[in-house]
Automatic annotation (TrEMBL), chains A, B, C, D:
Gene3D superfamilies: Homeodomain-like, Tetracycline Repressor, domain 2. This is TetR family transcriptional regulator. SUPFAM superfamilies: Homeodomain-like (SSF46689), Tetracyclin repressor-like, C-terminal domain (SSF48498). Residues 20-80 form the HTH tetR-type domain. Pfam families: TetR_N. GO terms for molecular function: DNA binding. Transmembrane segments: none annotated. The keyword DNA-binding applies. Residues 43-62 bind DNA. GO terms for biological process: regulation of DNA-templated transcription. Keywords: DNA-binding.
Amino acid sequence: MAINNVEALFAESLNELELTKKQKSVLRASLTLFSEQGFDRTSTSDIARVAGVSEGTVYKQFKTKEGILKALLGPFIQQVLPKAAGEFLDTFANTNVPDFETFLRRIVADRLTFFETNKLQLKIFIQEILSNSDMAATFINKTVGGAITRITAVMKFYQQKNEIVDWDPVRIVRYIMSTMLGYALPNLIQPDKKLNIEQSTDEVVEFIMRGIGIKKS
Amino acid sequence: MAINNVEALFAESLNELELTKKQKSVLRASLTLFSEQGFDRTSTSDIARVAGVSEGTVYKQFKTKEGILKALLGPFIQQVLPKAAGEFLDTFANTNVPDFETFLRRIVADRLTFFETNKLQLKIFIQEILSNSDMAATFINKTVGGAITRITAVMKFYQQKNEIVDWDPVRIVRYIMSTMLGYALPNLIQPDKKLNIEQSTDEVVEFIMRGIGIKKS
Amino acid sequence: MAINNVEALFAESLNELELTKKQKSVLRASLTLFSEQGFDRTSTSDIARVAGVSEGTVYKQFKTKEGILKALLGPFIQQVLPKAAGEFLDTFANTNVPDFETFLRRIVADRLTFFETNKLQLKIFIQEILSNSDMAATFINKTVGGAITRITAVMKFYQQKNEIVDWDPVRIVRYIMSTMLGYALPNLIQPDKKLNIEQSTDEVVEFIMRGIGIKKS
Amino acid sequence: MAINNVEALFAESLNELELTKKQKSVLRASLTLFSEQGFDRTSTSDIARVAGVSEGTVYKQFKTKEGILKALLGPFIQQVLPKAAGEFLDTFANTNVPDFETFLRRIVADRLTFFETNKLQLKIFIQEILSNSDMAATFINKTVGGAITRITAVMKFYQQKNEIVDWDPVRIVRYIMSTMLGYALPNLIQPDKKLNIEQSTDEVVEFIMRGIGIKKS
DNA sequence: AATGAATGAGTCTTCATTCAT
DNA sequence: CATGAATGAAGACTCATTCAT
């Protein structure tokens, strides 16, 4: 069964929910099971068993199985890009505008930490995006669109300062993201392995700076 | 239902099968449906309907639903990395060893073409890898392991020629792959859009060469 | 779920119950919901919500969902026929025995008023009788049987006075009841429409008197 | 769960369905069970067991439990009133217009036979009408409305011939129907008892003719 | 070879009922 | 007394798979 109201995914927030201990246990069990086996291969009786509650309890707070998915992914999605964008803006709010490498390092470290913290949600999110075209479309429209505009502004700023190459900002963002993804992806497939954030950040920044930076003579 | 014998996925090859017109139609329908909705959200009756055959016919050649998946992914998986590795070896078989950029351009163009051609299989493959840990483990053991060894040799070769930075070859391969992935991924989510192979190759190579290349003075 | 102890339905009386404001609210909500959607399509949580109480409160007074039904129908059933029979007896207690038309008019007006007042209970009662054979059997045995005897006596009285045709009293009662039913039934289906008691009584009596009356020459 | 597409009930006809032996068995079992226990108190596993088939088979032809209900009631509803109305028209197609008593006797015998033959469907139909307001509304709009017009014409015809009293035709029809109902209803509650059509018809006609007929002097 | 009716285990979901707070 | 979280037994429905025709 496909997810009907993907819109709702982006509207609700987990924080607003009053969750009892058992209901949190349901979410924890669902997070594990969905990420390990996928949404469709996880039955609600699996969830109940792992959460140590009855199946009825699973449905008390989350009216449907999809409801659990929404409760898990909603807060996640709201932070994937928006927070990054917020970070950019905060950066400019500071009078001390950093050089691009400092800026990049901050972003990369922040996002790698976010990915590592939300590894399981990210895995579930990707699973859904690959088998639910609505999900993908809505995500792109609601989330990606707005972020691109702001990020582009940042890139142009550093391009004018002649710190990075004069490529299409979208292209630059693509490289930053895909390089980070190169470090994050293997950990999605084997979630028990932990990402070394510091080293990864150093490596990503080193590579990206070579790839798009401009050496001042 | 999880896939039981992932091992078998790597053993069988579609080529060995004698397929009638109707059976090919079943595979074509399955490829489309699996990639659009995911394996679990696709029912065998969906497949039969889209393929224009009876459900009985679906089960004539492919004993189970998983059998269809194996028939689709088996040949694909055997080519994801192995063929790339083969390409490397062929390169060395030639006496005319090219410079790294030429070598890189050939690999990138080849793999981007492969991804574009096998977009749907790739999408299904990723879906499975994310919800079937057996699949991931077997893939890594059987396929990735062997490729790494050979690729490492190639990288070291060019490092000794001082054409690329002296980083861990695995790290370099990670960047090459993730940069390509940055171009391929959006097309997985929206498979109707076609990748401009030439331009993408140019851009990938340009970025990678800046990122890991060493300018000869 | 079928009703187990229909017997009990006829034993208990609502009057014996001490009902708090909230419990009356439960009964009122149940009456509305049962009559609109039927007993089975009404959930106890619906009742609790409409009554503005918690589900626990619903079960405080009425041990089971069937208990609510019994509380609603018990008093109703005890009045459907018995009171009519009582009416007959009272009539004879009077020394002024009325002519049949007067007698009939009194009965019809009384029963139509009763139906109109207890429209919702009647609707629920019919629903139950049609899907609960125990209910029907018990009702006939306990309630109808006794009434018939007394009513027969009344009919024979008027037949001997040569006011009505000499048909089987059961047949005559059938016509009286079915003619009244002809006016009551449409209002069961559309309970918001109100029955015009006076006009209906006039019409019923006019028709019945033509049908079974004997003109004195 | 209420019935969603009552409209469909009136559109489809059982005759159009190709039913296998087992599927007919499902309908037969459903007819019995629904009429005995009611729609809601009958589970699909009950139906399967009584029909001697698997639960899957129940759902092969009738996509939902409601689908079975529609298959049972659709053909019934199309004949409740329409056929009666058709009968009237056919009567007028004959040059030998019968007197009202002959006409009435024909109608009553026909409808009592219909009720007796379709006793179980009628019982189910009434159950549904009492717990599904959509059902009632649609039935009245689609079926009753049209019939009234034609029946009214017939009544006026006999009124002009001075054979029956000059009451509102709707009122007359009400008496005819409710008197018949008086004979049919007890058999709904105890469906194993068979209605004596001939005697019932005689009695109904005798009573109705007294009630609305006009004696020619 | 092909069909599609038939199967039955398994899934999501509802709901009457209980009980700790 | 009142609450509502928790339970678990059904119930409607799906679907991979089989097999007689």
